[in-house]
Amino acid sequence: MAPAGEFADPDQDPGTQTEAQGQGPGKPLLVFDAPKRGKPPRHFADIDPDDRKSVLAEVGEKPFRGDQMARHYFGRLSTSPEEWTDLPATRRGDLADRFFPPLLTLVREQRTDADQTRKSLWRLHDGALVESVLMRYPDRVTICISSQAGCGMNCPFCATGQAGLTRNLSTAEIVDQVVRGARDMAYNPGDEEAPRRLSNVVFMGMGEALANYRPSIAALRRLTEPVPRGLGLSARRITMSTVGLVPGMRKLAAEGIPVTLAVSLHAPDDELRNTLVPINTRWPVAEVMQAAWEYADRTGRRVSIEYAMIRDINDQVWRADALADLLTGQLAHVNLIPLNPTPGSIWTASRRSDEQAFVRRLQQRGIPVSVRDTRGQEIDGACGQLAASDL
After folding, report:
1. What CATH number does residue 74 fall under?
2. The domain that contains 302 carries what CATH number?
3. What SS3 class is residue 236?
């Protein structure tokens, strides 16, 4: 079921949907190019730090105001002009209106795990819905963010993939999810014994970040560059997930941002992966893994292999052996994910005994493996479930 046409570049102009061969007209299997919609308002986080002075000058403001606003937004996590006491009181409101338009409107928040997991549903300027999840652990605070509203990769066990792609997010819409999470931790932490500073970011929410390449990479730079250029997070604490867009993986390796690359593999063989991860019909397992090893060689960073454990589908011990064959001798770690099934889905989580057998076999083969902590199942924890329930 290979899609027709060629996908030349992950940041090509949006607007074209790619039909799958054998799927019939009007029923796309993979959508690389987001539908055209009205652009969100330009936000301060959309502006490249090197362009701030000129942008301020164009609107008749003193160039150093950009540095002042950056320190408030990225350093103090503030978009409230009344808190900008180093700016003239007569200019604060105008600057806030011009450079900090509201991008994310909270529709609903659900909390669980003794308030340590907070899942937020956001409405964007055009009504599109996206999700982020803030997770507090004893040694870190992680936020899982979205890079697209919906997803065009059509993985059948994923709520977001089944919802389809609405549009790409802008750089600022991606960044603002992180800023909002960091602000929540700083000012509303809850348990005072746990960390309150956001430290980790994972691009594992709604969407395929490498299919929204330019805004995602610009967001990475805003997140990792030091204040006032950005938030000053460690690139080594940021994970970029992909289903296997090989051209995007290679471009990411050349960016010089040493984030962790996570490959959503889910099957070690092409026959099964063609069904579970339809992009495999374009770039099969061998090509995806070659690009992953190139990334590891270029960055020195271990690649995370994401593997959702699906009952009686991909959790057989012989598939653990096949996975080990792919990974032996490589800089990689397997992250097994107990599937959080979506309502009405035929896909469900592996039996605990099968999961344990899979782990044992990988360990016997010398493959580093861990099982992801399962959080948020009682709050529509699978990506896309909260948005789907609000439609």
Report:
1. 1.10.150.530
2. 3.20.20.70
3. helix
Concerning whether 144 is annotated as a catalytic residue, the answer is: no
**One-character DSSP codes across 104-155:** -EEEEEEEETTTTEEEEEEE-TTS-EEEEEEEEETTEEEEE--SEEE-SS--
Q: Considering the domain boundaries, does residue 147 fall inside one?
A: yes
Cα separation, 340 vs 338, in Å, equals 6
Catalytic choice (61, 131, 208, 306): 131
Sorted by sequence, the CB contacts under 8 Å of residue 323 that are 6+ apart come out as 265, 268, 305, 307, 334, 362, 367
In the chain the beta strands, taken as DSSP E runs, fall at 105-112, 117-123, 129-137, 140-144, 148-150, 165-168, 200-203, 238-242, 260-264, 303-309, 332-338, 369-371
Q: Specify burial of residue 182 (Cβ count, 10 A radius: 0-12, 13-18, 19+).
A: buried
Which residue is catalytic, options 144, 155, 158, 383? 383
User: Does the CA dihedral 267-382-117-242 come out positive or negative?
Assistant: positive
pLDDT band at 18 (very low <50, low <70, confident <90, very high): very low
What is the tens place of the pLDDT at every residue in 268-315?
Answer: 999 999 999 999 999 999 999 999 999 999 999 999 999 999 999 999
Indicate if 131 belongs to the active site: yes
Q: For residue 19, tell me if it sits in a domain.
A: no
Q: In the structure encoding, which two tokens stand for residue 226, read together? A: 């030091």
How many Å apart are CA 49 and CA 291, to the nearest integer? 31
Single out the residue of 132, 98, 93 nearest to residue 219, CA to CA: 132
Dist. CA 195–CA 142, nearest whole Å: 10
Query: Over the stretch 184-206, which tens digit does the pLDDT of each residue have?
Result: 998 876 666 667 899 999 999 99
